[in-house]
Design goal:
The chain is built from four helices and no strands. It is mostly helical. The protein has one domain. The two termini are 22 Å apart.
């Protein structure tokens, strides 16, 4: 579930509208769920940044940076979508889409 086109509640919307609904649904999350989501994102971000800081060569740092760019969305998007799924219908209705 990495693509927003596969989410039933977002069917028929263009990319900009899908992103607006996702943003609104994320804003509607309860505080404990937001905390869990943000802690997960930090847990994914910290190790690669530490590796970049400790890289011996520029190439090694670039490799860690590129891997972060690839891995971060692969790990965080499915979790984000699963946490906001109950709020998507309300968010779409609130935005009149």
């Amino acid at each position: 579930m990495w693509n927003t086109r596969n989410i039933a509640e977002l069917q028929g919307l263009n990319f900009r509208d899908r992103m607006a609904v996702i943003r609104r649904a994320t804003d509607m999350l309860e505080q404990p769920k937001k905390l869990v989501l943000n802690l997960l994102k930090l847990a994914v971000l910290i190790p690669p940044f530490m590796a970049i800081a400790r890289a011996q060569t520029v190439g090694e740092g670039v490799m860690w940076g590129l891997s972060l760019i690839i891995i971060y969305p692969l790990l965080t998007r499915p979790v984000t979508f699963s946490l906001i799924k109950p709020n998507l219908r309300k968010a779409r209705h609130a935005l009149n889409l």
